[in-house]
């Protein structure tokens, strides 16, 4: 969402941004699926990088996040690092982002959960087994997927703030009671969730189809299985977004 809009943000505008972020997530999965699993990327014994202990993937993510921190990426409240400890300070002029969120939002970062989900559940489900030795590109594609999914899930903070402002009289008692169950019921819109799951499957079919001139291409052959994309949202993206919404709301009156 453009920087200037946060002051008078509506739920419709936030949802429009979530819809646009679906494109980024689907495309990032398609681009990662160009490579097989490439296990050495994740094997600490493969890399043996001087002065670094860990896998090539971890090296790539930590180094990239350090550069992006210096460029100011994490001054943006919509961005969350996977390795927040010891990140270098920004070296660029500070942009004053509109202060829309409650300060407690700063303490919410569930990227450890997202990391585990991505590498243990999602990745093996949508890439082919095998090794083409493109480990650096594989790591780069993984990070693009991680960052897109993380941004979408942590957008739950803005969703929660807008819902709170729209219906403060309903949310305040549940927040004061620290009542997760009632908060979950207040913030859940099943119809919206169902539309999201259907739309991301359709985007995976549309963006991931084999396009051939002449005939109408291979029906039913996609770069990433649309059911896997829809399942990602159903099992992880939507539940974790709601978790972020609840975590934010529980702190909203602090
Ligand atoms: C993000 C929202 O909050 C909840 C989470 C949703 C999601 O992650 O797609 C959709 C609807 C709600 O149940 C919203 O209301 O738009």
In short:
The protein is 59% helix and 0% strand.
Plain-language structure description:
The chain is mainly alpha-helical and 254 residues long. It contains ten helices and no strands. It has helices at residues 11-32, 44-47, 56-70, 111-126, 135-154, 156-166, 168-176, 180-187, 190-207, 226-251. Helix 9 (190-207) runs antiparallel to helix 10 (226-251). The radius of gyration is 20 Å and the shape is globular. Bound molecules: ligand ISJ. Pathway: Metabolic intermediate biosynthesis; prephenate biosynthesis; prephenate from chorismate: step 1/1.
Per-chain topology:
Blueprint: H1 11-32, H2 44-47, H3 56-70, H4 111-126, H5 135-154, H6 156-166, H7 168-176, H8 180-187, H9 190-207, H10 226-251
The structure holds the ligand C=C(O[C@@H]1C=C(C(=O)O)C=C[C@H]1O)C(=O)O.
């Amino acid at each position: 969402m453009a920087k200037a809009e946060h002051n008078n943000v509506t739920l419709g505008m936030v949802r429009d941004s979530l819809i646009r972020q679906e494109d980024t997530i689907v495309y990032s999965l398609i681009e990662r699926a160009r490579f097989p699993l490439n296990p050495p990327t994740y094997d600490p014994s493969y890399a043996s990088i001087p002065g670094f202990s860990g896998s090539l993937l971890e090296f790539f993510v930590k180094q990239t996040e350090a550069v992006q921190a210096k460029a100011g990426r994490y001054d943006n409240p919509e961005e969350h690092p996977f390795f927040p400890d010891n990140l270098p300070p920004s070296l660029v002029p500070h942009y004053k982002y509109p202060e829309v969120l409650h300060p407690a939002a700063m303490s919410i970062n569930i990227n450890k959960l997202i990391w585990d989900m991505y590498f243990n559940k999602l990745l093996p489900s949508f890439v082919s087994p095998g090794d083409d030795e493109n480990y650096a590109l594989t790591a780069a594609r993984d990070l693009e997927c991680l960052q897109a999914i993380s941004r979408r899930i942590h957008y739950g903070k803005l969703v929660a703030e807008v819902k709170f402002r729209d219906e403060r009289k309903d949310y305040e008692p549940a927040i004061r009671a620290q009542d997760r169950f009632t908060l979950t019921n207040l913030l859940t819109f099943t119809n919206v969730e169902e539309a999201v799951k259907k739309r991301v499957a359709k985007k995976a079919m549309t963006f991931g189809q084999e396009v051939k001139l002449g005939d109408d291409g291979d029906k039913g052959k996609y770069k990433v299985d649309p059911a896997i994309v829809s399942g990602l949202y159903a099992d992880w993206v939507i539940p974790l977004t709601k978790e972020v919404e609840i975590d934010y709301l529980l702190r909203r009156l602090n």
